[in-house]
Amino acid sequence: MKILRILIALAALCALPGIVFCEIALRRRCRKKRRRPGSRGGPASFRMERDWLKAQAQEDVWIVSRDGLHLHARLIPRGDCRRFAVVCHGYRAHSASVAPFARGLWERGYALLLPDARAHGESGGRWIGMGWPDRLDLLDWTSELNRRYGAPEIVLMGVSMGGATVLNAAGKALPANVRCIISDCGFCSLRDEFIWQLRRYHHLPALPFLLSADPLCRLLARYSPLRDGDGCAQLAKCRLPVLLIHGAADRFVPPEMMERACAAAAGPVEAHLIPGAAHAESISTAPERYWAHIDAFLAKYAHS
């Protein structure tokens, strides 16, 4: 009996780092609640764009994910427009936080679909997907647009975790009307991003936490932090044009991840580093350069 108690205690001790990791990094922080389009999220400089988003006529759209979660998005149509941009937000953010990106694409003639990722905003879910199960949710959102509008031209764009989401979706069989993908500071490896975060910001050895967290994450969130979320492997299967943008001063997702993603892409790829830009701030650090890169990319690959 004493040996059994010791074994149980050792098992609990080994599991503790994983439990702590899942609770802090992956569990939804608070119960889902209604967020107004103009509610807080993102830098204060984005307030005008959030106010713009709040003023737009929009519709709440819902789908059910493949694992039974009710997922929410903001649909902002524009008449009989046949171009849609689907814009995916970052970690612990929500659909209103992408207002600056959404407004820029709206001004370039796109109607908008702004999803709340699972375990974010108004979408259901207890565990954050970090861009991996979210890739399937993104495919289902494109199917919903096709169901509603036939087969409109679709551009997929994501920022940070949303950037990882669109990179991971690149490896799936996307509908033919998805023209191209834009990833702003998305991480190309979930495992390496977790290792980077644990070492740089928490000064913790990554291996014990990830080894302990992996079986828990597979049980609770249905993906593996060690084996899933390899955006480079997904890009190697993608033939769609991909635009990568990253801030040179990004300390949250290292810029070298953009270089790795660029090297892995099998299809047409463009990569641009924005000098002086921190994480997800390329759009505010150098807006003219930022949108010039996107304009040139869209003109080349997206427009019918």
Strand content: 15-25%
Secondary structure class reads alpha/beta
Q: Biggest sheet: strands side by side, in what order?
A: 1-2-4-3-5-6-7-8
The helicity comes to: 40-55%
Average pLDDT metric:
90
Q: Per the principal axes of the C-alpha atoms, what is the gross shape? A: globular
Rg over CA atoms, rounded to whole Å, is 19 Å
- N-to-C span: 73 Å
Largest sheet: number of strands, sense, barrel closure: 8 strands, mixed
Number of helices: 11
Query: How many β-strand runs?
Result: 8
- Order of SSEs, N→C? HHEEEHEHEHEHHHEHEHH
User: Any low-confidence stretches, pLDDT <50, length ≥5?
Assistant: 4-14, 32-42
Short note summarizing the structure:
This protein is α/β, with parallel strands linked by helices.
Structural overview:
This protein is of the alpha/beta class. It is 43% helix and 16% strand. It has helices spanning 2-26, 47-55, 99-107, 133-149, 161-169, 190-202, 206-220, 231-235, 256-264, 282-285, 287-301, and strands at 59-64, 70-76, 83-88, 111-115, 153-159, 178-184, 242-247, 269-274. An eight-stranded mixed beta sheet has the order 1-2-4-3-5-6-7-8, with helices on both faces. Helix 1 crosses helix 7 (206-220), helix 2 (47-55) packs across helix 3 and helix 4 (133-149) crosses helix 5 (161-169). The longest helix has 25 residues, at 2-26. The protein is globular and about 70 Å long. Mean pLDDT is 90; it is low at 4-14 and 32-42.
